[in-house]
Write a structure and sequence with these properties.
37% helix, alpha/beta, TIM Barrel, single chain, 6-stranded parallel beta sheet, two-stranded parallel sheet, 200 residues
């Protein structure tokens, strides 16, 4: 909040092998968090969606369970940084057929796109949205990831910016990122929709 954030959408992982969250566990955590904030006298809006790993479990959920979405029926998804699922476009097309908007988390961290930036433009043209990880712009994940993040911003391919906060070190780095005047200019283009996400 001291950095200027007025509302938060938590997106805990749903990754069966490591983070076997469900709609129910996330809803319970959201309730507990809101209760703790109220008891502490902190008035801030907190919502919760999820970040889904594109694995066999996700494909099962897509067919059998309502997915936990961001506003606008957006579903935040991620994949291995080294290789895309062989049926990636098929999965994302099935999501669209079910009325979901695929929102690809931290696309700058997918090194399999590094030598084929046309893929970013293809995703954009197919109606997939991209969420940049702000920490990538600090060089936290390495210079190549930072460069890909800057490429996405400069080409106005980013729809949302996420924090990817997991601990206090991330918070400190985020503060430095938001103070960078050059990055502030890049983050102010009209295609970045964070401010509009919770208006409805």
């Amino acid at each position: 909040m001291q950095l200027g954030f007025e509302a938060f959408i938590a997106t805990p992982h749903i990754y069966q092998e490591l983070y076997p969250n469900t709609n129910e566990t996330i809803e319970t955590a959201l309730h507990d968090t809101r209760k703790a904030l109220k008891e502490a006298g902190i008035q801030v809006r907190v919502e919760a969606a999820a970040e889904y790993m594109l694995d066999d479990h996700f494909e099962q959920l897509l067919e059998t369970t309502p997915l936990r979405t961001l506003p606008g029926n957006r579903v935040l998804i991620e994949m291995s940084p080294l290789s895309a699922p062989p049926n990636l476009d098929h999965i994302l097309f099935r999501m669209q057929l079910k009325g979901y908007v695929p929102l690809i988390a931290h696309p700058e961290r997918y090194l399999f796109v590094k030598t084929n930036k046309a893929r970013y433009h293809d995703w954009h043209d197919r109606g997939y949205e991209l969420q940049l990880n702000l920490l990538s712009l600090t060089g936290y994940y390495g210079p190549s990831v930072r460069d890909l993040g800057l490429y996405l911003l400069k080409n106005k391919l980013v729809h949302f910016a996420g924090t990817d906060l997991h601990h206090t070190k991330h918070l400190e780095l985020l503060g430095k990122t938001l103070k960078d005047k050059n990055l502030q200019k890049l983050l102010q283009y009209e295609g970045l929709n964070n401010k509009n996400l919770l208006q409805n």
